[in-house]
Design goal:
42% helix; mainly alpha
């Protein structure tokens, strides 16, 4: 899949979740869309739906700093 035009998906959540995602994404200097893309990839790998990409958020060096 090319990086230029990727499929889009939308979901509904409450304001508290939205704000937390925005804060997390900002702390990692990424967009909410990119953050969610990485999170979904991780879950799909854990569940066995896709093969692991080269880099996952759950790697110890990529853990959020709290």
């Amino acid at each position: 899949m090319s990086l230029g035009r990727r499929p889009r998906i939308m979901f509904v959540t409450d304001e508290k979740i939205k704000k937390a995602l925005e804060d997390w994404a900002e702390a990692e200097t990424r967009t909410v869309s990119n953050l969610l893309d990485e999170l979904v990839k991780e879950v799909l790998v854990q569940k066995g739906y896709i093969e692991a990409p080269k880099k996952l958020l759950s790697h110890p060096n990529n853990a959020p700093k709290m």
